[in-house]
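Our platform keeps sequence and structure together, in a single record for each protein. Nothing more is needed to write down the fold, since each code stands for a local backbone conformation. An entry from our holdings is shown next, in its original layout:
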Amino acid sequence: MSDSTTPSRPRTLLLRGGEVHSPADPFATAMVVEGDSIAWIGSEGAADSFADNVDEVVHLDGALVTPAFTDAHVHTTATGLALTGLDLSGAATLTDALVRIRAYAESRPGDRVLLGTGWDAGAWPEQRHPSRAELDAATGGRPLYLTRIDVHSALATTAMLDLVPGVTGREGYRDDAPLTGEAHHAVREVAHATLTPAQRTEAQRAARAHAASLGIGALHECAGPDISSEEDLLSLLSLADQEAGPRVFGYWAELVTSAKEAERVRELGALGAAGDLFADGSLGSHTAHLCAPYADAPHSTGTAQLDADAIAAHVATCTEAGLQAGFHAIGDAALNAVTEGVRRAAETVGLPRVRAARHRIEHAEMLTEATIADFADLALTASVQPPSPTSPIWPSPPPSSPVSTRPGAARTACTRAVWGPSAPSPSTRTPPCCGPECPSHWVPTAPSPPSAPGRPSGPPPSTARTSTGSRYAAPSPPTPAAAGGPSAATTPVYSSPGPPPTTPSGVPVH
């Protein structure tokens, strides 16, 4: 009879016949997992010695096995709210969206403010967003804050606007048009302030559980005063520290110009004053800052939110404080301002120190050969969303699509070439990290009006399946991209801060 106090042996699993991504052995095809730890990685021949002594053998048939991914750009609470609340990304028409809004409002009679996301008028046959009158009718006159799929603009009901004093006089407000800029930020702040601590925790748990189900072991939370709140970031970092699940690395998007302000960022638990520190807006909202007018809005070149002087001061302060600086920059004009600002900072604090900090740029969508060269020279990390057939941020639609043509065909082709399969050689000198811009992408699309809160789905956190059905086990603890784990993309790419990344064979990336 065995001693009841003897701990049970952890279950063992042999994965073989695949491609195991590991710098320790670039030719590995098999691995052994004991419980939640990787016990061995090696060749197919050596795997024979384990086959008779494990609890289960999984034949991979050539599938890829990787460490847990790091998603390099996440808004965790907003993602959780989309998972558990109103998500219009699956709405096929304007009428469908209004039906979903009405059903959601009826299902949440106790919510002070209704929160939703995911609408995209460009994907609907009506080619327009809901009017305020239509939203007022669908919600029964209740406050509703409803962000576009890129989260850079939003719609609001009359009752929601009434909660924000002076909103009609703020930049970015136009009658019955989507809110942008200061008006959007003000409405978002009021709407999110209505969340109770319990609602926030529920959303954060849902987002982390769903990330784990996708094989994501670490999240880069892009927080900031125009995105969320200090309370939101602190509660998320505390939750991740106390509960099992993906690790969370925080970024706080606020300009710093003094050592005292930099220290405050550090006290929040953030790794950098970076993330969505806006140099411009988004293409979908016509607020990304372009060098030339939009093809479908020839009166506009978007909005510049930071100039090179402000960028230089921020980068210099962060460099001296040992913080990673970073900016949200999409349009080519915004990226020019960022690289010019970083170069000015390098003239102040020294180019080697700026390079060592590996400052990062979120999205970096309209790069040119010149800005790619600047990224390489300044050792900037590009935190990007590579083109994908299902991505609402940089989809790969037919050439006639409004999304495809909005910046102009030549600029769109240039951008897709930078991060696509035919990327020019200079991009290899600019190591990217990747993330699909949650909540815009890895939130599952609701198939019907959300009469009840959605729930995360997928395999348990210890394993996940790729789009091709391959299975991969998460190491313990999850490995962030900063330490060599791959970013959330289809190819192994790397993130910072941390030591210089390596390729799968262990060769440093320059």
Confidence is low (pLDDT under 50) at residues 389-405, 409-428, 444-510. The radius of gyration is 23 Å. The CA atoms of residues 176 and 419 lie 36 Å apart.
